[in-house]
Design brief:
Blueprint: H1 3-12, E1 19-20, H2 21-27, H3 32-47, E2 51-53, E3 58-61, E4 67-74, E5 80-84, E6 92-94, E7 107-114, E8 123-131, E9 136-143, E10 147-152, E11 161-164, E12 175-183, E13 192-201, H4 207-215, H5 224-231, H6 239-242, E14 246-247, E15 254-257, E16 266-272, E17 278-285, H7 296-304, E18 308-309, E19 314-315, H8 320-326, E20 334-344, E21 350-361, E22 364-367, H9 368-377, H10 380-385, H11 390-410, E23 419-424, E24 430-436, H12 440-463, E25 469-471, H13 477-488, H14 501-510, H15 517-527, E26 532-534, H16 558-571, H17 577-618, E27 624-632, E28 636-641, E29 646-650, E30 659-662, E31 667-670, E32 675-678, E33 682-691, E34 696-701, E35 709-710
Parallel strand pairs: 6-8, 14-21, 15-22
Antiparallel strand pairs: 1-3, 2-3, 4-5, 4-7, 5-6, 7-8, 9-10, 9-12, 10-11, 12-13, 16-17, 17-20, 18-19, 20-21, 23-24, 25-26, 27-28, 27-33, 28-29, 30-31, 31-32, 32-35, 33-34
């Protein structure tokens, strides 16, 4: 048992009374030479929120009955919520008066002041800051002559940061800068800091996106040691590389990706067998052959967790020498792969499968739009371009429908949300925002990756070895009850007492093509839990799948790379008891870390999209559009346009009446006219403002007889 576990075990005893650190050292017979390390262990346990030091500097266990350990999620108005580390607990509301100098992202301990009641949330106060999250903050510098202020880009940081004249480092008014905090906030006093880096003006090319990269602390350049390791990688295969591999170079394999893609980590092969079944091969780049565990490349890939895609740039998980080079399944060159060969019958059931270390030679690099043009329109131009693989593409179409129908039968939920495509000019300014096409070629590859990931996960579930799963737990019944009340206003209801994906699938079919489709789908998605990585096998609710993992993108996702290593070790008989024990220890940490990096990447990507949309609309003030009411609140209504851009119509500019939000019926109603605005209503708006710094867009409703309803 480790010293950490021994300390916790002691404090769990009923007879234990809080002790000073020196008393604990004596109790455990810690010598003078070991005391420093022992105290570090106590500090670590305290930072993790497992133990607490009281006002007398004595240590004891956290009492979870009245203390909550978690992360503070701030709000620009000064209040916040503590998101508990214990996921079974509810969030705790913290008023501005009780936030006690904590800032967004800080690890904190909250004392419960009010218990949760049926219609009221739990409230608390911050009593301890375990770890500061914001040692540096990015934002806009404001020069006030004798001093300056930083207006944080992250609006969840409520306080501006005071910067003494001597610490401005030459920063000029309205420049984007990075500030290091030198004094933490106190009651009614702002934090203080010094300028450590000047990025430039927001209007300078690329500074807006760079600011978001810095705000989310995303990694840009690779360390020299990592870059050097990538440069030392071979660019061609050797005989040693091929040893023990299945040679599939004569098999017709090809990749299908977006037109702008530079890294290709999956290739497809397909044929129809004499028995009428399909033989589908999904061939994935064998990144683990080059990125060895605990190497500089591996440590950096783990740190990043995944690649991040920010409209005009990619922050790759691996250096481009690997991701675009030896690991990329480029056409007409030999490449190492891990292949999943599946025999699939006419019902979409995988009746046989093999996972092989292999070598392929991709015959063609295809683009989604070309393949879709052929399948959807029988386009003669692309038929000539794709002539070598036309039979395979027709088989892919057949199998795609079979697999999709099987998923549908079992209840898989297909959210058909329109993705946003933002086109930038050479200076990084948005010149077009529109819906991105999700065409048949995209759907084919999605289906093949899904069945491949399921096949791998099921295989290793039954192998009973440590593994990394992609899980999506059942939704919270309370959230579903609220959602059910909401859709009742549209005349829909979820059937059945028990929650099953099939119920949601039937609903998505029912609303297909109707004006409320986007609104209901969005709220349904928010009612479901978020998929995460886990070392514990569990269902994927959204896919209605018992077994699921991420195997197909090791160039851009670290969990896939880990899974490749486990598969290869298992198949070579190297997964002995010692290695399994080690995996059981490290997989929970890998799952938690990569789930976190995924969330951070998604937030940054969404922030960049919102920024560019605000920029786009800032040049269209006064223009009019038709959209649908996508959300209603107690301060206004949100309207989403056809191009996916969303803006707010605030109550204070709806001057034809006094409007209020009817929470029970989910609509906005005028006190005098009884005019109603419901979710899904079609409305005409005028763009009246766009705040790029806050990513906000403001609309004004234009009166039109067919735009609203009355009671």
């Amino acid at each position: 048992m480790s010293i950490r576990e021994t300390i916790v075990e002691l404090m769990e005893e009923k007879k234990y009374k809080p002790m000073l650190k020196e008393e604990l050292a004596v109790y455990f017979n810690i010598g003078k030479g070991e005391a420093k390390e022992f105290y570090k262990v106590l500090d670590s346990l305290e930072r993790e929120g497992l133990i607490i030091r009281n006002n007398n500097d004595k240590y004891g266990l956290i009492n979870s009955d009245y203390l909550v350990v978690g992360m503070l999620q701030g709000n620009e108005k000064g209040f916040g919520f503590v998101i508990p580390n214990d996921k079974t607990k509810e969030d705790v509301f913290i008023s501005a008066d009780n936030i006690n100098s904590a800032m967004n992202g800080d690890a904190v301990i909250a004392n419960i002041l009010k218990r949760q009641e049926s219609d009221k949330r739990m409230e608390g106060e911050i009593i301890r800051i375990l770890e500061r999250a914001n040692t540096t903050v990015i934002g806009t510098f404001e020069d006030n002559g004798n001093f300056g202020f930083l207006i944080p880009d992250d609006h969840r940081i409520a306080n501006d940061i005071f910067i003494p004249k001597s610490q401005t480092n030459g920063a000029k008014d309205k420049q984007k800068v990075i500030v290091e905090i030198t004094k933490w906030p106190e009651f009614r006093r702002n934090p203080e800091g010094k300028v450590v880096d000047i990025l430039g003006y927001l209007t300078d090319k690329g500074i807006d996106i760079l600011s978001i990269i810095k705000q989310y602390k995303l990694l840009e350049e690779f360390p020299e040691k990592v870059q050097q390791a990538a440069l030392n990688m071979p660019d061609i295969l050797t005989d040693d590389d091929l040893e023990g591999r299945e040679d599939l170079r004569e098999t017709i394999t090809f990749t299908i990706d977006g037109a702008d893609a530079k890294d290709y980590d999956d290739a497809i092969s397909i044929e129809k067998l004499n028995n009428g079944n399909y033989k589908l091969g999904v061939h994935i780049a064998d990144v683990s052959h080059y990125v060895k565990e605990n190497s500089p490349l591996d440590k950096e890939a783990y740190l990043r967790g995944n690649s991040v895609y920010l409209i005009d740039r990619v922050l790759p998980m691996l250096p481009r020498e690997l991701s675009n080079g030896i690991c990329s399944l480029n056409p007409n060159v030999d490449r190492l792969t891990l292949s999943v060969i599946m025999e699939i019958d006419k019902n979409g059931t995988v009746i046989d499968q093999q996972i092989l270390e292999s070598v392929i030679n991709s015959k063609k690099r295809c683009v989604y739009d070309d393949v879709s043009d052929f399948i959807e329109d029988d386009d003669e131009r692309v038929k000539e371009k794709l002539k070598e693989i036309l039979p395979q593409l027709k088989l892919m179409e057949e199998l795609m429908y079979i697999l999709r129908d099987k998923r549908e039968r079992r209840g898989s939920i297909d959210f058909d949300f329109p993705e946003t495509f933002i086109e930038l000019d050479d200076n990084g300014r948005p010149i077009d925002v529109r819906k991105a096409d999700r065409r048949i070629a995209n759907r084919m590859i999605e289906e093949f990756m899904l069945v491949c990931n399921e096949t791998v996960a099921e295989n290793f579930y039954w192998a009973e070895v440590p593994f990394l799963y992609r899980v999506h737990e059942e939704p919270n019944p309370e959230k579903i009850e609220i959602f059910n009340k909401f859709i009742h206003n549209f005349g829909y209801t979820l059937k059945g007492q028990e929650i099953h994906p099939k119920d949601f699938q039937l609903l998505t079919k029912e609303i297909k093509g109707k004006k409320e489709e986007t609104v209901i789908s969005t709220l349904l998605l928010r009612s479901l839990k978020k998929a995460v990585y886990s070392e514990v096998p569990d269902i994927h609710f959204g896919l209605a799948s018992k077994y699921y993992c991420h195997f197909t993108s090791p160039i851009r996702r670290y969990p896939d790379l880990v899974i490749h290593r486990i598969i290869k070790a298992y198949q070579k008989g190297k997964l002995n008891a010692q290695k399994q024990d080690r995996l059981e220890k490290i997989l929970p940490e890998i799952a938690e870390h990569t789930s976190m990096t995924e969330r951070k990447a998604e937030e940054a990507e969404r922030e960049v999209d919102d920024l560019k949309m605000a920029q786009y609309m800032s040049e269209r003030i006064g223009e009019q559009y038709v959209g649908i009411v996508s959300s209603v609140t107690n301060f206004g209504l949100f309207v989403q346009l056809e191009n996916t851009i969303e803006g707010l119509v605030h109550f204070n500019i709806m001057d034809d009446d006094f409007y209020r939000f009817d929470e029970e019926n989910f609509y906005i109603i005028g006190e005098r006219t009884k005019k109603i605005y419901r979710l899904g209503d079609t409305v005409k708006i005028e763009v009246i403002g766009a705040d790029v710094s806050k990513r906000n867009i403001d609309f004004r409703l234009i009166d039109d007889n067919n735009l609203s309803s009355e009671v």
